[in-house]
């Protein structure tokens, strides 16, 4: 029998807000442990939560971008469980009424567009961090992350392969980056993903026993863990085994999933309405105002790019995946109207540099106009393409515009025909023998002559122009 | 000569204003009284003598601006005072000193009152007798063999015995009113949301409310004026302007419509209590109030509804007491689960454990709908009962508790009979409406009896008018225990 995997994903997104979800503490990353804490996020007796409206606004923004329906009345619930990283031993979350529900994302996977339905989007608080002491009798607790706003985005089980899961995550991340509501940085933990996976006979509409997968630290890890889990489950059902509902952890080192807990050991979270936060009905105009702040989404942008620019689907996909890159691209085109060249430079040298420096494209310090200037210099044969690449690197290092580097070094290419003709005349006069050799049929004598011209001009001579002059002077 | 410690705050304040008395003198006398009596009454669990004297000395030389400036006050042990032991009279919080002041404490300080210490209570406010405290029971000043009521028994006994001028309590199902009744003082539970809960260690968040325990109605109105008001830190705090409650202290109930709910005059009420309450109603009628029998049909479900909702919230609120960050931690745990188990087993008393288990059970998957959700629905019905009633009447008068103070140990092993002590006070918490208990007589044993006056949400003024007028025409409130 043929089997197919059925996958649903849960993404936890740390929202980028000035303060935590339910108190006034700062959300800055990488600060001294426990320096960002107060009675509320420490869960001290007597403290009470207060909803951060920036976090709520971000939630609505995401919900709208994912085509979700916004809940009419917003309420919070307590999820009760004991763990030392959870100061109150309950998490303020949302249970039966998430901020939003029933949306979708269109993803492109294997050249096709697929609709992945979003089941729910809910707002909750993050837990703190435990730092375990190897061999020590205790663990340390850092409260800085406790109470940070988290948005949980849950799909329906619409994903049918690890590849699709990967494409969904990439597509979702791109949307979230466009909304500027999160850093979406898996390394810093601002984006986390758990997966639910089961297998069933191909074409069946029943769901098998689902396994929840945790501890995947990158999109690639999600794909690998799912691939491993698909084959594990398929082998098991093919061998006639009955799978159990359980939670498994991905072990990246061993590249296997390991049992964490079975259904019997699952928590009963005893959800009930959070009595310290009053339910409220968001004003429709508030929601509409947020809708207006949503920028053009990646799929719409891709469609527009395809209509307007003569670019390959691949180029468009790459450009559009990063809002900053796409914006940069369009800005650059305002001053230099050659989409393919601009795209090549952005996807090539510029992206390479931003990857190398691990910063965004705008943080490299080269303005779109600056890049346009550089490209114009190549077209105007003021500098060579090779030189332009070196200039770009130097400009990034020195944090100035490329044109400045070109000017300060006098790097402009020598393309002036009259000037070059004079130089060629001198060189030919000095190298009578080579001229004779060339005329006598030794074609590589020309290479020597060109080399001499280059030497004379310190490499700035435009090779195409020299060629033209030489060929004319040598009587061709 | 009258004793300074027998005077209500409003009388002392006059003397302080006219410089007949100095704040430091009052505080010294009060501390002396506490030292004299606390061994017998056990109403205080913590006294901050140096801070109180320091604050009083500072007040000696300054202008006493607020009505209650320079007046000593005691606070129930479940309200956070920065740097002062705040333990909910539980072993699990021993040694806990909050790094912040509750909002009511801030307001009390801003108004110049002088914090003297913390008063005894049932552990985490779980109880009606003050017997479940880890510091031992508080005794009733009228008869030290008897309970002072609870859970704010320490505050009520301290006010009754002159160990403090006024006190702060908290009321989740009657914890201010029932001990006020049993100690012969005034205790008021304001409308839910009127007083900020920020800094009150939560028992049941949707029911808890902080309120005054005082020697008379005038003091209750003054202290409520100090602590009431919107607070950004408490999302359930009502964003309204609070009136000047002193303006409602008028000796005139002519035309005031008072409802008498038939469901509150049931079997099981002690005859002396019934008699005193009926006499109080007669007096109010004589004074010009219109008395009307009304019905609150869902009253009989209040106690069972309460004992689902309150423990459910408590089980979650008390989850944080796990030995990780603060308070008591059991020594030598094997691992984290062992640490939780031992800490909570050793740290909580019997009643706390009973309520945590009860609450955990009613929230468990499979039972939630049958218990918690159903209780929420009944709560709505109880609230609607009152909404309907207040279309016809301005306030409702009932006994505060079916009995006077019972003997220490009499009900401690019988939770149900203990729970029924709050049968008349619980409905106001479920409905979120204000209610007061004022002295209305004594039983044959010389024990005080309380009269409860209930009003609609944010209609505290109706309560104050009825209570003040009644007080002006009786002298129960000026009786003091011979201790």
- Overall structural class of chain B, as computed from helix and strand content, comes to alpha/beta
Poorly predicted tracts of residues of chain B: none
In the sheet with the most strands of chain A, the strands line up as 2-5-6-9-1-10-11-12-13
Question: What does the oligomeric state look like here?
Answer: heterodimer
Task: Give a description of the structure.
The complex is a heterodimer of chains A (476) and B (483). The longest helix of chain A has 20 residues, at 219-238. In chain A, β12 and β13 (256-262) form a beta hairpin. Chain A contains 15 helices and 14 strands. Chain A has a nine-stranded mixed sheet. In chain A, strands 4-3-14 form a three-stranded antiparallel sheet, with no helix packed on it. In chain A, α7 packs across α8 (339-357), α12 crosses α15 and α13 (432-439) packs antiparallel against α14 (445-456). Chain A is α+β, with helices and mostly antiparallel strands and 476 residues long. In chain A, 40% of the residues lie in helices and 20% in strands. Chain A folds into three domains: 3-289, no CATH class; 296-409, no CATH class; 417-473, Arc Repressor Mutant, subunit A. Chain B is α/β, with parallel strands linked by helices. Chain B has a domain at 4-253: Alpha-Beta Complex (Amidase signature (AS) enzymes). Helices cover 37% and strands 13% of the residues of chain B. Chain B has helices at residues 9-17, 23-41, 49-60, 103-110, 153-160, 177-183, 217-227, 271-286, 302-317, 336-347, 350-363, 369-389, 415-419, 426-431, 460-472, and strands at 44-47, 72-76, 114-119, 166-171, 186-189, 209-214, 257-261, 290-294, 395-399, 435-442, 448-455. In chain B, strands 1-3-2-4-6-5-10-11-9-7-8 form an eleven-stranded mixed sheet, sandwiched between helices. Chain B is globular, with a radius of gyration of 21 Å. The mean pLDDT of chain B is 96.
